[in-house]
Each structure stands twice: as C-alpha cells, then as structure tokens.
Amino acid sequence: METYTTLVNIIGNFGFPIFVALYLFIRFEKKLEKLEKAIVELGNNIRGEKK
Fold it and tell me: What is the rounded (10 degree) CA torsion for 31, 33, 38, 44?
C-alpha cells in the first residue's frame, strides 16, 4: 500500500510538468517547421534574384 501511495505522489508531482513540457514542445515544433519553410523560401528567392 505504501508503494502505491508513493507512486501516486510521484505521478502527481511530475505528471503536470511533463504534460506542460510536451505541450510546449509540440507547439514549438510547429513554429520551427514554419520558420524552416520561410528560411528555405527566402534562400530560394535570394538565389533567384542573383541569376
């Protein structure tokens, strides 16, 4: 019974921070993908102007 209580406390203490970290990681990943596309497009535009 003591092990169960300890396990519940660990999940309660670390579950929320892990959830927040995963949520932020997913949001930043989407923004990084958009930034990557913009950088590639900018590079293509610069190469197109030099030709």
Answer: 170
